[in-house]
């Protein structure tokens, strides 16, 4: 199953806030960012401690996501799912959205 792509508003990081990582996703990022502190979050997920304090993801860099290759599935899905919580606040979206069931399957595989 492919996540439909779409263009973001240039320079926007509006959705890069308190984003949950699965344990596997956290471990992949921790391998290259050993200084990053993590806190347990809901349903066995993890969040960067800095994001808990600021509600901003600490991986936002000058040129966008600084861990792009290892960003969590929820970041990959944001804006591309037919669900109110996953809707881009800037109005960006692909032509065809994934269903909630499809997104849940992709999140399950990422766990
Ligand atoms: S999905 Fe929307 S809010 Fe997130 S970076 Fe793209 S344009 Fe900004
Ligand atoms: S991991 Fe990357 S894409 Fe996801 S919220 Fe953080 S900066 Fe944004």
Summarize the topology.
Layout lengths: L22 H10 L5 E3 L5 E3 H6 L5 E2 L2 E2 L7 H5 L22 H11 L1
Antiparallel strand pairs: 1-2, 3-4
How would you sum up this structure in a few lines?
This protein has helices at 23-32, 49-54, 73-77, 100-110; strands spanning 38-40, 46-48, 60-61, 64-65. By secondary structure, it is α+β, with helices and mostly antiparallel strands. The strands form two sheets. It has a two-stranded antiparallel sheet.
Please supply descriptive tags for the structure shown above:
alpha+beta; two-stranded antiparallel sheet; binds iron/sulfur cluster
Tell me roughly what share of residues is in helical segments: 25-40%
Strand content: 5-15%
Number of DSSP strands?
4
Number of domains: 1
Element-by-element helix/strand order: HEEHEEHH
- Given the structure, what is the number of helices? 4
Radius of gyration: 14 Å
What would you call the structural class? alpha+beta
Shape: globular
End-to-end Cα distance:
16 Å
Listed once per kind, the bound small molecules are:
iron/sulfur cluster
Largest beta sheet, briefly? 2 strands, antiparallel
Mean pLDDT: 95
Strand order of the largest sheet: 1-2
Query: Which stretches are low in confidence, meaning pLDDT under 50 for 5 or more residues running?
Result: none
Descriptive account of the structure:
- This protein has 111 residues and is α+β, with helices and mostly antiparallel strands.
- The chain has one domain.
- It contains 4 helices and 4 strands; from the N terminus they run H-E-E-H-E-E-H-H.
- It has helices at residues 23-32, 49-54, 73-77, 100-110, and strands at 38-40, 46-48, 60-61, 64-65.
- The strands form 2 sheets. Strands 1-2 form a two-stranded antiparallel sheet. Strands 3-4 form a two-stranded antiparallel sheet.
- Strand 3 (60-61) and strand 4 form a beta hairpin.
- The site of one iron/sulfur cluster (SF4) has 12 residues, from loops.
């Amino acid at each position: 199953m492919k996540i439909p792509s779409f263009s973001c508003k240039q320079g926007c990081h509006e959705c890069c806030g308190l984003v949950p990582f699965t344990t596997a996703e956290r471990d992949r990022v921790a391998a290259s960012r050993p200084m990053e502190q993590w806190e347990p979050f809901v349903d066995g997920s993890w969040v960067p401690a800095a994001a808990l304090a600021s509600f901003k993801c600490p991986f936002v860099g000058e040129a966008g996501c600084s861990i792009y290759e290892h960003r969590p599935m929820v970041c990959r899905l944001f804006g591309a799912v037919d669900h109110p919580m996953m809707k881009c606040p800037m109005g960006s979206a692909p032509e065809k959205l994934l269903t909630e069931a499809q997104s849940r399957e992709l999140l399950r595989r990422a766990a």
